[in-house]
Amino acid sequence: ASAFDVEAVEAKWLPVWERLQPFEADDAAVESGAREKRYALTMFPYPSGDLHMGHAEVFALHDVISRYWRLRGYEVLNPMGWDSFGLPAENAAIRNDSHPATYTYGNIETQAASMRRYAVSFDWSRRLHTSDPEYYRWTQWLFLKLREQGLAYRKNSPVNWCPQDQTVLANEQVLADGTCERCGAEVTKRELTQWYFRTTAYAQELYDCLDDLQQTWIGKVVNAQRNWIGRSEGAHVRFAVEGREEPITVYTTRPDTLYGATFMVVAADAPLAAEIVAPERREALEAYVQQVRKASDIDRLATDRAKTGVDLGVTATNPVNGEQLPVWASDYVLADYGTGAIMAVPAHDQRDLDFAREFDLPVRQVVDTGEGDPAETGVATSGDGTYVNSPLLEGVADKATGIRTVVERLEADGTGEGTVNFRLRDWLLSRQRYWGAPIPIIHCPEHGEVPVPEDQLPVVLPELRGADLKPKGTSPLGAATEWVEVACPTCGGPARRDTDTMDTFVDSSWYFLRYLSPHDQTQAFSSEAAAAWGPIDLYVGGDEHAVLHLLYARFFTKALRDAGLLTWDEPFSAYLSQGKVINDGRKMSKSLGNGVDLGEQLDAYGVDAVRLTLVFASPPEDDIDWARMSPAGSQRFLQRAWRLADDVTSEPDVDPADGDVALRRATHRTVRDAEELVESYRFNVVVARVMELVNATRKAIDSGCGPADPAVREAVEAVAVLLSMVAPYTAEEMWERLGHQPTVARAPWPVVEESLLVQESVTAVVQVKGKVKARLEVSPEIGDADLEAAAMADPAVQRALEGQTVRKVVVRAPKLVNIVV
Ligand code: ANZ
Predict the structure, then answer these.
(1) Hey, how many other C-beta atoms are within 10 angstroms of the C-beta on 707?
(2) Could you identify which of 239, 330, 694, 785 might form a hypothetical disulfide with 316, taking C-beta atoms 3.0 to 4.6 angstroms apart as the criterion?
(3) Residue 228: pLDDT band by 50, 70, 90 thresholds?
C-alpha cells in the first residue's frame, strides 16, 4: 500500500460526516429513558482570531471521552458555541472603525471551519452565539428572573475601576497584584451605583457542595473556590461608644483574645469612621481618606506595609471588662469585609502589633504560647497556649475551649454571638461597555427601576460603531439618545433605559442550558430537557476559569433551582482541567516569538497526527512542551496502524473464536485496559496501549499466524475503534478498508471476552537451600518437567549450584521449584 495522503483523506471524510451527522443528540431517546445520557461539555471559545494550540489540546482531550461514551452506547450531547460578547471585539471595532459584530462573526466562521476540520464530535445543530439577540433575549430574561427572586439589585459603593478599559470590574477580575485581569492596568476605586447579583446568598451552599465535588473535579479548582469563598468561623462582638446609640460591631475569629484588645480600628473609607469621628479630628480623617482611595485592597492588606492611620478621638467599651479603648481609622481594615471594624489585639495579630508599635499603643499578651511576650519580641503569636490576663479563661489551655467560653459569655450578656463569615462578595455585573447584553431595566422618575416587560425582550443593542464605542467612563449606550429615551412601561411617562451592559460572564453562566434547545423562541430552556440531560457529566476546560466562570455557573444553577426551573444542585458533576501547551520550556507568546501556529501544524502533519501528539504527550492535566513533541512520529505510527487494515484478508463476518489465542488475548486485554484508562482520564496511556497492540498485530501478520487469521481482523477492528477516539480520519479509513460502512464513530465497542483476560503468565519461584534465587515468568499451563528445566537453566540458579551436588528437586508447577543440595 502507498503512503496515506493526509490531505486527500481529510477531504474525503469531512463531507461524509457532514452528510451523516453522527453526533446529533437524540432528545427523545433520553427523555423517554430509552438510552442512558452523557452530557459532555468543553468551554466555548471567545471569537478572537483563529483556534490556537491550546484549543487543539482541550478539544482533543475532550473528544476522547465524548467519542468513547458514544462508542459505549450512550446518547451523548456534545454541543459547541461561542462566547461572543466582550471587549476584544469592541476594541477591534474602535481600531478599525467598524462594528464589533464584523469582527465577532468573521472570527466565528473562521473558528467554526477549523473546528470542523479538526473533527471534534460536536453536535452542530445546537450551535449558539451569546451575542445573538435570540440568545441574549434569554440572558435578559434570566436577569429579570433573578431580580424577581431578590438576587439582582443595585447599590452605590466603591467599586473596582480599570482606568485603561474605562469600566468597572468584578472582584474576581482583579488579579492578586491589584491589576486588571484583562489589560494589566492598576485597578483603582470609584464610588458608583451598579448592578449586583447576590452570590453571597449562596455562600454557604457554594462552599459546602465543594466537599462532594472534591471527589470528581480534577485539578486545583476546588481549593481555589474554597479560598475565594473564604468561610471563617468567629464572632460578632459589640462595643458601646460614648454618645452614640449604635455600638461598634466587630467581626473576629479570635473572641478568646478579647482581654487583649487594647484599641479598635474602623475602615477609614467606611461611613462609620465619618460618623463617629470627634469634630476636632474630622479634617485629619478626610485628608487620610483621600490618600487611602488610591491604594488597592491587596496593598492595604499586605502585612509588610508600613501602617498608617488616624485617631478618631473617641473611645469604645470592651464588653468583658469595661475598659475604654481608643478608636482609630486605618486602611488596613477593609470597608467591605466582616463589619468593617475590628478589635485590635496586638499581642496576637501581627498587623495590629505593627500598628501599635507605629503609634505607641499598648500591647497586652493574653495567650502564653511559650514563644515570649510579643510586646518585647515584636512578633505576634497566634498558636494555642495558656490564657493569661483573662479572668474568664483561667486554667484554659486550648483555643477551641477559649473561643467557646467567651462566645457563651457574650451571648449570655447580649453583647455578641458566634457567627460565620465569608470572604465572597456579591457579583458586580454592570459594565460601561457596548458589546454585551443590555440590562433590561427602564428608570422612571416616577416608578424607579421598571423591568422591561417580557414581551418586549430582547432589548436589542442600538447600532453604534467605531469612535462611538470609545471608552469614556460612562456607557457608550448613553449616546444612542433615541434608544435611551423610552416611555415608562408602568405609566407611559418619559423614562430612560439602563445604559450598562452585563458582564460577559453572565452569558456563560447558563449557556449549557441553552444548548438543550438553542432555537426555542418560547423559553430560555426546557426544564424537562434539563432534568433529562443534566447535570453535565464531564466539563473539560482550563484552570484560568477556576473562580470566575465555574463559581458563577454554580451560582446560577442554584438560583434557577430555587426559581423552580432546575432539579439539580450543581451544574458540573465532574471537571477536568487540562495543562497548557508551551514551547521551548516557556509559555507561548507574541513577545517571546515562540508561538506555534495550529493551522501550520495541521497542514504539515494532518489533524490526526496533531491530535494524537497532544493526547499522547502527557496526562491531561500536565503542560505539553510542543518543542519536545514529534508529530512526525505520530504520523508514522498512524501510517503503521492504517497499513494493518490493508493487510487483513479475512471477511468482515469471520468468527474470531478459532483465531490465534495470543493475539486475541492481547486484543481483549487492550480493550479492557482502554475502558479503565479512559474512565480515569489516562488518555495518554490508552494511546500507548494501542501502539503496543499495533505492534503485536504487525508481528502476527508478518511472522506469526498470518493476515488471514481471524484474530488479525479482530485486532485491527479493535485498533480502528480505539483509534477513532483520537485519530478519527485514520480510523474511518481503516474501518472502510475493513469492509464496514461509515462511520466508525458509531461502531459498537468491542465486547471483551473475560475468558481471554486470564493471566498469560505466572511467576514461579526457584529456591536453592530454602533461599529464593530466581523468579521466572512462565505459562500457567507449564508442566513439571518444563518448569524444572527452565529453573536449572537460569543463570542465577546455576551460580548458586556451582560446586554443589543436587540431592533432590521438588517441583510444584507452575509456582515453585525447590532445589535441595
Ligand atoms: C481580633 C483578632 C485577634 C483577630 C487575633 C485575629 C487574630 P479571616 O480569618 O480572614 O476571616 N478582620 C476582621 N475584619 C476585618 C477587616 N474588615 N479588615 C481587615 N481585617 C479584618 O480574618 C478575620 C480576622 O481578621 C478578624 O479576627 C480580625 O482580626 C480581622 F489574635 O479579631 B481578628
Answers:
(1) 17
(2) 239
(3) very high
- CB of 348 closer than 6 angstroms to any ligand 1 atom: yes
- Split at pLDDT 50, 70, 90, the class of 301 is low
Among 185-189, 224-228, 534-538, 742-746, the least confident range = 185-189
β-pairing verdict for 386-387 and 367-368: antiparallel
Residue 316 Cβ inside 6 Å of ligand 1? The answer reads: no
Spatial CB neighbours of 586, under 8 Å, sequence gap ≥ 6: 592, 594
Residue 590 assigned as binding residue: yes
Inform me whether the pLDDT recorded for 773 exceeds 50: yes
Nearest to 22 by CA among 86, 66, 60: 66
Q: Is the pLDDT of residue 2 over 60?
A: no
Average pLDDT rounded to a whole number, residues 773-778:
92
Distance CA 295, CA 477 (A): 30
Of 424, 429, 423, the residue nearest 197 (C-alpha): 429
Most confident of 90-94, 586-590, 633-637: 633-637
> Residue 265: CB within 6 Å of ligand 1?
no
Ligand 1, atom 19, lies closest to the CA of 333
Three cell numbers, residue 18: 457532514
Ligand 1 atom 10, closest CA: 232
DSSP label at residue 746: G
pLDDT at 545: 82
Name which residue sits closest to atom 27 of ligand 1, judged by CA.
Answer: 252
Q: Is 421 in the pocket of ligand 1 (CB under 6 A)?
A: yes
Q: How far is CA 186 from the centre of its chain?
A: 26
H helix or E strand, kind and range, residue 402: helix 399-413
- pTM higher than 0.90 for the full model? no
Q: How far apart are CA 190 and CA 511, in angstroms?
A: 31
Pocket test for ligand 1, best of 207, 248, 253 (most atoms within 8 A of CB): 253
Q: Which ipTM did the prediction report?
A: 0.95
Q: 598 CB under 6 A from ligand 1?
A: no
Rounded distance from Cα 376 to ligand 1 centre (Å): 22
437 lines ligand 1 (CB under 6 A): no
